[in-house]
Amino acid sequence: MRPLLVLTGVPTASTVRTFLTPLQTGTVMNLDPxxxxxxxxxVHVGVDKDDTFNSCITPIYPxxxxxxDGIGKTRGFDYTRSGNPTRTALEQNLAALEGGIxxxxxxxxxxxxxxxxHLFQPGDQIIAGHDIYGGTYRLFADVFSKMGLRFSFxxxxxxxxVAAALCPQTKCIWIETPSNxxxxxxxxxxxxxxxxxxxxxxxxxxxxxxxxxxRPFELGVDVIVHSTxxxxxxxxxxxxGAVITRTPEYxxxxxxxxxxxxxxxxxxxxxxxxxxxxxxxxxMEAHQRGAMALARMLHEHPQVQRVYYPGLPDHPQxxxxxxxxxxxxxxxxxxxxxxxAAAERVxxxxxxxxxxxxxxxxxxxxxxxxxxxxxSMTESARRAAGISESTLRVSVGIEHPDDLAxxxxxxxxxxxxxx
Length: 419
Fold this sequence. Notes:
Blueprint: H1 13-24, H2 38-44, H3 85-98, E1 102-106, H4 109-117, E2 125-129, H5 134-143, E3 150-154, H6 159-165, E4 170-176, H7 188-198, E5 201-205, H8 210-213, E6 223-227, E7 241-245, H9 248-261, H10 267-277, H11 280-299, E8 304-308, H12 318-324, E9 331-336, H13 339-349, E10 354-355, E11 365-367, H14 379-385, E12 391-395, H15 401-413
Helix pairs in contact: 2-3, 3-10, 11-15, 13-15
């Protein structure tokens, strides 16, 4: 493979000719995605699917079926539930971003979780955090528990709690870090070490951070899931999910499950996510810039009781965040003084923050976990996780931080008489 040429200083005519020669003679530079930097992989991996017209953007193949050239002979695809060129492009891209060998794009993030839960059998136990996303908690506690799987919800910030939950029936440790909505961190390396000693699988939900800020495979995790609805797509115009694997064994099994259950995403949805992921790097930088500015402002605000953001030095796991993450992300939560009434007033008075669930889009969103994203948890489970009536979760968009801070400040000012 020819190494990537980096031009430094002012290029001479001969240097430019040397760089352009392979392109002028029709030779394709075979650049291994593993050698490309993150932002370059976002833009280029998986996109070149059009050999007929050389489209620079991956086409949408909205076909349900494909012609065969003969018995047992296809051009790589036969039926879109099993595979589609547009979806394959997205899958190749996401696998490269996370450092996996295979990816299966699904219809929703919950479909991705559903797929990996089918790796287990009735009687198997899964250990998960007690403060995970409400939809995941609901799927575990109310759906798959009735199908014979056992779930133990523990404080995963405490390695002792994880160790105490391990038993002969344990088959998986579910890692969500940072947690949703309180941004508690799980020490991935420590949990992976416990899992390997016990001989169990580790699955990490990397939705909150995206591969731009956190790479669970590099910390030893076995399988990664995403809601591509969030940061990977980044524009609040599609729902989707992904399961990324690092070994042939799990790649084959997950691929079989997604096909058999019909969980794959549509070609159009795959195209939207593939379009969105191209700007993941610069978007995450903007999200983080805004989140840090808001976290600092909220930390000093008299109407705010507590701020949850791992980028703040006083976050109890700030050192861990710096060790296992390359950025602090665009999500934060805070407790407003004045209880539920104050929380509701902040949401309704804010003008640049839409009161809405979901996260990771270019626009800022604010929601009340107690009655919105985590309403499917029991009240006692929410309180045990640390979610209160005054907790607000913010997905910081890419707007200018000064405008967001001014808007949030005026919304908080309206709550003074309630505290």
